[in-house]
Design a protein that fits this description.
The protein has 116 residues and is mostly beta strands. The chain is 0% helix and 53% strand. The strands form two sheets. Strands 2, 4, 5, 6, 9, 10 and 11 form a seven-stranded mixed beta sheet that branches. Strands 1-3-8-7 form a four-stranded antiparallel beta sheet, with no helix packed on it.
C-alpha cells in the first residue's frame, strides 16, 4: 500500500518561494506507470491539479502554473514541489497524489498560508 506524507513550512510570505516535500512509503517513485502529482485546494474552492512527475522523470504542468512551479525528485522516495512568486491566493491545502491504472493514493495534505 502506497502511503504519502507531505511536509512544508506552513506560512510563507508573499513573493517568496514555497518548497514542499512528499515522502513516499510502500512503493517507489520509479515503478513503471506511476504518476506523482501535486494538487491543491484553496479555502472554499475545488481541488486544482498543479502538475506531475512520471515514473520515467517526465514532468507535466497546468498552463496556469507552469511558469512558477517546478516538480522534481531526488531518489525513489521523495517528490518535491517548488513554486516561486507566491501570492495570498496561493493559500491552500497542498496534496501529494499517486496515480496508477485508475488507482489514486493521497497524502493527508499540508496547509500553506501566504501572508505577510
Amino acid at each position: 500500500q502506497v502511503q504519502l506524507q507531505e511536509s512544508g513550512p506552513g506560512l510563507v510570505k508573499p513573493s517568496q518561494t514555497l518548497s514542499l516535500t512528499c515522502t513516499v512509503s510502500g512503493g517507489s517513485i520509479t515503478t513503471s506507470h506511476f504518476y506523482w502529482s501535486w494538487i491543491r485546494q484553496p479555502p472554499g474552492k475545488g481541488r486544482e491539479w498543479m502538475g506531475a512527475i512520471a515514473y520515467d522523470g517526465d514532468t507535466y504542468y497546468s498552463e496556469s502554473l507552469k511558469s512558477r512551479a517546478d516538480i522534481s525528485r531526488d531518489n525513489a522516495k521523495t517528490v518535491y514541489l517548488q513554486m516561486n512568486s507566491l501570492k495570498p491566493e496561493d493559500t491552500a491545502v497542498y496534496y501529494c497524489n499517486a496515480f496508477i491504472w485508475s488507482y489514486n493514493y493521497w497524502g493527508q495534505g499540508t496547509q500553506v498560508t501566504v501572508s505577510s
